[in-house]
Amino acid sequence: MQRYKAIVAYDGTDFSGYQVQPHKRTVQSVLETVLAKMHKGHEVKVSASGRTDAGVHAKGQVLHFDSPLSIPDEKWVIALNSLLPDDLSILKVEKVKESFHARFDAVGKEYRYRLLLSKSRDPFECRYSYRYPYKLNIEAMQDSCRYLVGEPHDFTSFCSAKTEVVDKVRTIETIDFLMDGDLLTIRFVGNGFLYNMVRILVGTLLEVGSGERVPEDLEEILKKKDRRFAGKTAPAHGLYLWEVFY
Amino acid sequence: MQRYKAIVAYDGTDFSGYQVQPHKRTVQSVLETVLAKMHKGHEVKVSASGRTDAGVHAKGQVLHFDSPLSIPDEKWVIALNSLLPDDLSILKVEKVKESFHARFDAVGKEYRYRLLLSKSRDPFECRYSYRYPYKLNIEAMQDSCRYLVGEPHDFTSFCSAKTEVVDKVRTIETIDFLMDGDLLTIRFVGNGFLYNMVRILVGTLLEVGSGERVPEDLEEILKKKDRRFAGKTAPAHGLYLWEVFY
Questions:
Q1: Which end of chain B is more exposed for a tag (fewer CB within 10 A), N or C?
Q2: Residue A47 Cα to chain centre, angstroms
């Protein structure tokens, strides 16, 4: 058996998220079906760096799997892609030590959230960014981030109450804002992110940008350690798992 | 009755082209259904600058329609967009003289064709560009264009045999090539384009780029006035009706 690390990209629109669910088209189930085809029907389990929700995209999701097949790395990419649908693509496959684990070995992640700041709809952006047609004070949003980045914080307030994780302390290294035309990309880099954390952070930052909250509220929300004090969860289709660091 | 000119954009992926067809989702039928809703069920016909095929996108298709409703131009945009699906969007509506005709008054059009020159698939590009993973001599493609642009030519060879148009003389003003990363955009501006003309031009240029033909062949193909001498029709999903000039 050889362990392989794979980097995959997907347009999350038509997937019911990453994880296998009965009767649903998920990233994991599509990948495992294709791997089973390559292994004469034998099940091959894939393990990802983390789940992504329905509608969330990935530019660089990482996963691992074990296979008895001895195929050169580039041939894996070609073979898998020839069987995969257009909205899911293998970018890279490489042999790794059998101790490698896509989730446990990850030391950090980058997520990006794309906002279309426009009154008019764009049919070419509707799957790939969240359109926010109202006034937005981006400076106030940037100002809020000083309460979030640099040192470890307990992000209980910014985490879906559904989570099973006990330790909710994470460190966000940087949050930056990139404006390109009417497209605002907010980039989050950190050592780990809780369930829905980026989407709740974005939803809360939008409430600061719209004037419903002030930047100083972020400090208060963190202290409360209660999901109810943070803002709304921003929609899935603006979110991208951009890169996983090892 | 007031005549209105509208500029619309659509992601062509999930439409069976522009024109109404029984039991099919087309751009025209979706627009007319929404207009009928705004007119208490009364039929409102829309006339476009020209049809687009299934899968072809539009960034600036133009159409006209007549309505007894007296609504300010910006309100038309908001009202129509609130009823239209995400993949079809009204960019602008303006009052025009009743003599205005979206097709007959058009004096030129710009089409763009997007090619993804990459060996690896990109799930975020698969709907919006044609992936060409082979070697391409772009200089030879550019060189071919001198036989096509600047003066009127009979484009019978570059036109689907299915067309009903009799006069096949058109003038292409410019064809230019824009490389951005691994994305090649070929831009066509001319006084008019025949059925499938841009796609057949792109298919033929690709055969020059791949070395199957030489630039000088273009002159010969034009002279033949026979579709069978030109190259393959490039796929619809790389093509955009970009702008219509009046």
A1: N
A2: 15
Low-confidence ranges of chain A (pLDDT < 50): none
Asked if A81 has any chain B CB less than 8 Å from its own CB, the reply is: yes
Distance between A151 CA and the closest CA of chain B, angstroms: 34
Q: Which residue from A221, A217, A216, A206 is spatially nearest to A137, judged by alpha carbons?
A: A206
| Confidence (pTM) | 0.89
Interface mutation vs chain B, best among A124, A127, A183, A242, most B CBs within 10 Å: A124
Tell me whether A120 touches chain B (CB under 8 Å). yes
What does the alpha-carbon distance between residue A96 and residue A226 come to, in Å, rounded to a whole number? Answer: 40
> What topology does CATH give the domain A2-96?
Alpha-Beta Plaits (3.30.70)
Closest CA to A30 of A41, A15, A42: A15
Which residues have a Cβ under 8 Å from the Cβ of A45 and sit 6 or more positions away? A32, A65, A66
Give the torsion through C-alpha atoms of B140, B142, B148, B150, to 10 deg. Answer: -140
- The ipTM estimated for the assembled molecules is 0.85
Does residue A182 belong to the interface with chain B, where contact is any CB pair within 8 Å? no
Contacts of A11 in chain B (CB under 8 A): 123-124, 126
What secondary structure letter does DSSP report for A127?
A: T
Yes or no: say if B144 and B208 are a contact pair by the CB < 8 Å rule. yes
Would you say the CATH fold of B108-245 matches that of B2-96?
A: yes
- Per-residue pLDDT of B147-199, as tens digits, reads 999 999 999 999 998 878 889 999 999 999 999 999 999 999 999 999 999 99
Q: Which of B7, B56, B91, B120 should we substitute to test contact with A (largest number of A Cβ atoms within 10 Å)?
A: B120
Candidates A53, A66, A86, A176; catalytic one: A53
Q: How far, CA to CA in Å, does B111 sit from each of A82, B190, B192?
A: 31, 9, 10
How many other C-beta atoms lie within 10 A of the C-beta of residue B233?
A: 19
- List, in sequence order, the alpha helices (H) in chain B: 27-38, 73-83, 138-144, 197-209, 217-224
User: What was the pLDDT predicted at B159?
Assistant: 95
Which residues have CB under 8 Å from A39's CB, separation 6+?
Answer: A67, A68, A69
3-state helix, strand, coil in chain B (%, to 5): 25, 30, 45
Amino acid at A14: D
**Hey, where are the domains in chain B?**
2-96, 108-245
B81 shares contact with chain A (CB less than 8 Å): yes
Write out the two tokens for B40. 């208490």
Tell me which architecture the domain covering B108-245 has in CATH. 2-Layer Sandwich (3.30)
Distant-in-sequence, close-in-space partners of B168: CB < 8 Å, separation ≥ 6: B154, B155, B156, B159, B194, B225
